[in-house]
Structure formats: C-alpha cells, structure tokens
Amino acid sequence: MRAAASTIAPARRARRARFLPWAPLLTLGVMLGPVLAGLLGTLAPALGYMPALGGIGVSVAPFEQLFAWPGLPRAVALSLGVGLAATAVSLVIVVLICAGWAGTRTFGMIERLLSPLLSVPHAAAAFGLAFLIAPSGWIVRGLSPWGTGWEQPPDLLILQDPAGLSLIFGLVTKEVPFLLLMTLAALSQARPAQSLRMAQALGYARVTGWLKTVFPLVYRQIRLPVYAVLAFSMSVVDVAIILGPNTPPTLAVQVVRWMNDPDLALRFQAAAGAVLQLGLVVAGLGLWRLMEMTVAGLGRRWIASGARGHRDVDQGIRRLALALGATAAVAVIAGLAGQVVWSFAGMWQFPDLLPDGFTLRNWARHGPRLAGPMAETLIIAATATGLALLLTLACLEAEHRYGLRPATRALWLLYLPLIVPQVAFLAGFQTLSISAGVAGGRLAVTLAHLVFVLPYVFLALADPWRAWDRRQDIIARALGAGPDRVLWAVRLPMLLRPVLTAAAVGFAVSVGQYLPTLLVGAGRVPTLTTEAVALASGGDRRVIGVYALAQMAAAFAPFALAVLLPRLMWRNRKGLLNG
Amino acid sequence: MIRQIMTSLAALALAAPLAAQEVVPDPTDWEGVTGAAEGQTVYWHAWGGSNATNDYIAWAGDQVEARYGVTVEHVKLKDTSDAVSRVIAEKSAGKDAGGAVDLIWINGENFAAMKEQGLLFGPWAEDLPNWQFVDVEGKPAVTSDFTVPTEGLEAPWGMAQIIFYHDTARLAEPPRSIPALLDWARDNPGRFAYPQPPDFVGSTFLKQAVMELTPDPSVLTEPVSEASYEAATAPLWAYLDALTPHLWRSGAAYPQSGPRLIQLMNDGEIDLALSFNPNEPSNAIANFELPETVRSYVLDGGTIGNASFVAIPYNANAKEGALVLANFLMSPEAQAHKSDPAVWGNGTVLALDQLSEEDRATFEAIELGVATLAPDELGDALPEPHPSWMVRLEQDWTARYGVGQ
Which of B57, B80, B249 to mutate to test the interface with A (most CBs of A within 10 A)? Predict the structure, then answer.
C-alpha cells in the first residue's frame, strides 16, 4: 500500500506541476492579447494613427484638439471629484456599519438585504433613483399638491446638478452594497469577534475598538476592491449620463460622446480623451494612496493614544451609520419599486402617486421575448465566471505552493480593462477579435467578457485568499494531507464565502456588459443587456422597467448563493468561519 | 441606358479589389440578385428604441423571408455609430469581405462620413425595381441627404419632419414661429426644453432657428465659409442668449435625447417640445406615454424635413439579401404599411401619382393618428442645411452653452 501510494504521488504531482506553475503565465497569456490590443487601439488613434480613417502619421494633433475643448478643466475636475467623493463616502458608510453592527441581529438583516441590492444593474438603479428624486419624481408626487401646493413640478435642478451631487448619491447607493459584500468576505479571515471582545474587555467602546483592532486588518484585504470602486466611479458612463451633469459632463461621458459622433474625425480626439482618462484614474489612485498613508499615520497615533472612545458618541455614530446605510438601501429599493410599478403602468402623470390604471400589456409584449436573451445571458455569464474563477484560483494556488510572487505581480496588467474607458479600449479589442477570426459568436463574446470579469474575480478573491492563515496548511500537511487535499478539503471550504462572492461579482459584471457584447458579438449575440440598452434609448419607462427586472433576476441567484450558502454549509462547521 | 452602363462600370471599378474573393451583385440583373439572395441572412443594424419601429422591422423581415427566402435579423442599436464603429474596426483588421453588417439604417452626418471614408457599397439604390415609384422630384431629400448627394449609395425608406407638440390641457395656443417662441418662453419660464446638441433633435432645433433668423438663408445650402458664418449665425446666438435663461432648468441642464422630452412632457415639467417624427405624439398617446390631449403643429414658416435611408457597407456579407430587403422597403405595400399610424406612421418616400390605382387607394384609406398632421398641414419640408453648418453650430453651441460658462 505504502509503496504504491508513494509511486503514484510523484506522478500526480508531476502532472499537476505541469499546469499550476504555469497558471499565472497562462492567465497573462490569455488576457495579454486582448488587453494590449485594447490599449494599442486606444493609444494609436490618440497619436493620430488609424489607417482605416486615413490617419497614417504620428502627431499630437488629437491631444491639441482635446486640450482646446473648453469644457476640459471642469470635466476633469468633475471626474476626479465624483470618483473620490463617491468612494470615500461609500467606504466610510461601510466601515461604520461594520464597526457599529457586525455580529448583531441587525447586521444579519443587512446581510440578507445585500443580494437584492447588488443584483440591481447600475443603470436600472440610476433610472430608479432619477424617478425618485426628480422635481416630478415619486417623492414630490407623494407630497403634492397637498403638502407642497405644487400643481406642476417646480423647475429645480436636482438631477444633473453641476457639482455632480446626484451622481455621487447614485454611485454611493450601489457601491455601499459592493464594498459591504467585499468586507464580509474579508471579515471571515480577520477574526473580528475575538479582537472586538479583547478591545471591549480593555474598556474600548464598540466602534472605537473595532476601528482600532479590526479595521486595519480588513482594509488590507479590501484595498483592491476599493481601488476598483474608485476607478469605476471615475469612469462610469451609463449612470453618469442619467444622473450626472452635462454642461459639461464627466470626461468619460464626453469621450463616449465623441466616440459616437457621426464626425469620424472626433474619434482621434476621443482616443486622446481616453488616454487622459487613463492618466486621470492613475492620478486618482495615487491621490487615494496618499490619503491612505495620511489616514494610516493619523490612525496609528490615535491607536497609540489609547483613547477608549465615549459610549454616547459611539452610540451616535452607530445610529448615523445605520441611517446612512438605510438611506442608500431605501433609495435603491424604492427606485426598483418604481420600476416595477412603471412596468405595469397605464397612464401615469404628475402629481399622481400611482398610475391611473394597470396593464399587463408591457409584460405580454416583452415577456416572451426575454427567454432567448435570458438564456444567452446566463450561459455566457456562467462560462465566463467559471473560467475566471478557475484561472484566479490556479494563479493564487500556484503563488501559494511555488512562491511565484513575481509572476502574479505582473498580473496588475489584468486591472487595465477596469481603468481604461471601455468605449475606446474596445475599438482595438474588436479589431483584434476580427483579425483573429473569433468575432461574432457566443465564444468570442464569452472571451471578451472574461477580460472584464477576471479582474473583478481576481480582486475579490486575491486578498482574502492570501490572508488565510498558513499554519492551517502546516497542520494539515503534518497530518498527512497532500497539497491537493489541503486545497479541496481545508482551504476551499474555509474560503467558500470569498470564492462564492467573487463568482457572484463576476457573474453580475458579465450580465451587465453592453459594449463588449455588441462589438465583439457583431450584434449577433443578443443578451438582456444589449436588448435593454437599445430599448431604453426610446425612453419608455415601462420597457425600461421590464428589462431592469429581468436583468436583476439574472444576477440575483449568484449573490443570494454567496450570502446564504456559506451559512448553510457552516451551520455545523462553525470553526471554519473564523479560522 | 448609358447611365446604367456607367453605374455598372463604376460599380465594377469600385469592387475591383474585392473581385478575387466574391461576385459583386449587379442590381440591374434583378433575377440574378434574388436568386443569389435566397437562403442568405441579412443582419440589419437599426436603432431599436421604439416598439413601433421594432415591430415594423420584424414584419418586413417576415415578408422578405416568405417571398424571397431571405432571413432578416434586426440588430437593435442604441446608436447608429455602433454599426459604423463595427465597419471601421473590420476595415482596420483588413476584413474586406464577409463583414458583420449587411444593412444600416442611416442618414445625415453618418452617411456623409461613411461615404467620405469609402465605407459603403454601391451605387445600387437607383437600379432597384421599386426606385421607379420614389418621388424624386417632389421630395428632393430622397437623393440629397442633408445636401450630400446620395449617388445611389443609400435607398430612402422614410420621411421625417420637425414638428412641435404641446398638451392642449395646459397650453392652448402654442407659439408658431421661432421669435414667438422666445416671447412665450419669457412669459412661461422653464416650460420649454430642447435636447442637448449634438443630439440630432437638438441640433435640428438650432438649424431650424438659424434658418428663420439668418438674413440670407441661401448661404446655408453651401458648405460653411468663414466669410458667411459670422453674419449668418450672429442672430442665432443673440436669440439663444435671450432664450437660455428661460429654458427648462435655465439651461443649466439639458435633456439628453428626443425621447426624454416625451417623459418631461408627461411628467408636467415642460409644456412644449419637438420631435423629428410627425407621428411620435400619436404613438406615445397609444402607448400611455402622453395624455390624449397632446397635439402637434409645425411653425408658420415651415419646418426642416429629411429622409431616412438604408445603406450597405462595402464589406457586407449578404449584399444580395440586403438589396432585396432595401427594394422591399421601397415597395408600395411596405411603404403603405409603414405609413399606417397603427403600425408606425412614418411618411412615405413614394410619389402617390406614380402608383397603381389599387396601391394609391391603400394609402388614401389610412387613418391618421389623433395628434398627427395630415400631409397638407405638414406642408413642404424645408431642406436641411449643408452638414458642415451642423458641425460648426454644434461646436459653437458647446463652447457657449455646453460647458457651463
């Protein structure tokens, strides 16, 4: 027996060894082509090179035109301001909620709310919010005319305000659930209960104790998702068009406008704008890093000071955090409810709180047409997420077993698709897919989605994976388990929550892809999102409501699984929860 | 005859580099075209934001499938430029045949750009059998797309004209000229909005205004020149400077598209709006998107009109199928179906006096929508200015009003 086992084991190891050590390189190889093509497709026209449109030289003219655009300073300031503000506000809300409520019954309720909140597509949440807070929106309708005296809506600049406040609000409502989900995944590796108990035993108030003992550990794990939120908030287009200012808009929106302009010469300027946007996101990340260091320095001094925190202040902060979080959640849920009502609405005018009549006509018209795109959406999302998960786990496990840090470090390249505006990035990407002859089918679309899904899966999983306590590996190995057995029987079950979370995020990212699906699929792979975006351009809130609900349904199940499955599976294995 | 030979020769010359790979369809040999088209799938890239439009496209696809064995797939776009991007990307990648786009719904600047970049197949439109019914004389827009000669590179399939609409329950007597609009806006601040240029409805509002205000409208049909631009547009900027403070949100924010105006009207935020589709208010009423009291009208001096076209990219995969579809779209039957407000309510490109008795009767039997103007109420459409004016107007508008200064 023993002899047989020892002869099998090396062979097995050898076979494994062929795949795992190469995983980071393989991942880079798979992704590098599209990413570099996308980058080239952005850089070359920015420097005036695009033979298909008659640009064959190299010049700085596109940048000169870009800098001559009178709206540039404001657009740049707006992008930077909105991105930093939305990220900071979201992070503060999430941290204070966790500090004040983690481990309580209330926190359990918050957790259950997460999956529906996360599965609402960004654009749908923005439409919902717009109908909520507009001067002719649901809130004003509820108060008019009896409370406000308004027979017709007031001419107030709430949506599209020049400072971008509604845009920040809209982004915060969607980023708070995302960061909370990431934090939950991270918390399972940070043993918050033990630290908090210790802090409270030493007389620290709850929030103060959490911030001083748990937060430093957690933030290290959620840093990448926070960066992703910052990059996303700075370069988001659909939400910014619905809620953001437009005289001028953010830089990313302006790039899309130029890209869509019938005047093809503007595409060079658009490419230059995309390069500037890339620089802007990098600068934004740099600023954030500076803020991180400042806060860390101040925080260390605060921790060393030994201040215990006041119980009353502490209670105030807890309530405030809950109120802010609840506002964000209510905004999304009420917005969604608005869409549900619209999808059944007959005539519905200001100041009526509800439609004159309800009709099934919209569902009867569009419902049967949802089946095909829904199936396509689910197949593509499942495949792309599965591939992304496989590559990510292989990379991380290779890093763990073979110490391949340098190779995984090069994986930062994978994050490029998140920080370059899609509309410019995809031009080169599309050209590559056509040259490679893979354009126009489900496979091509799935691979294109992978480029955008993988970074999210990677950033959602990498830090929790690395934060796993290696002593457990040593103990398991000492008990005779091989590295594979440790992976399958110990590490994956313990990290089930971050793995499922990463998968759910990846799935939702795939469901939401519009441009990659359209451009790489040559329009021949209709998904819920491509249908929804095309129909939404007609502005009928009833149709938008139907498709928003369908998109939400597609993304809901994975989020629900990520939140509920670990609880079920850990019910009798509580020890796995906190290491 | 000579013309036909010339166009065939031109087609041959244009297609020469591709000849090694594929047989170029010859629209003058119609039987050859329909024969080759059978079994093809045509990917028609067309704006997909309206139920009426989408249903009509689906109907046309069914008809062409039943009659010619050509399958039509509607690729629903939010923006025509997405299809243009696709063709550019294919050209960049050297894919000069077997492209993904077979037919594009297009006009104006997009057409001018594709034509200039050599991205279109043709000429073919004027060789189609149903071209004989097209009202070339009565509707100059069908061969002159924003003053750019179509030269057979695109086939007309619908007419559009600017109309204004208002809710009679809130506004009984709307302003009927551009100057009157300013006076009305002064008395009713915040109740009018136009989409932000370069949205095409917004840009068309600028063109409509400049045509009515400029001292000599004839310069607008020529490409813009520095000498003429200043004098021609000075009254427009003076007008907009006066109008902007009285716009919806005082001009600090603009609606981002034409359909958004319907929402704003229904929400009671504005009392006056405009559209490029004379039947849009009727469609919106039927769809519960606007109250039944909404009516439309045109300005006393007439409003700008243009035609919509379909074009075939130079590297289209199913050119024969696309030709068959384009020809069907110009048929009296398809045009009559499209004119029916219960279907779409889009104006026809055909000359009714060139149709058979029977076809003409079909057209005349169509009942107009409640908020749709009859052809004589619409009047003769004013021609679009040269596209170069639109580019300059959009740039200047952005510098003056679009960047918050």
Answer: B249
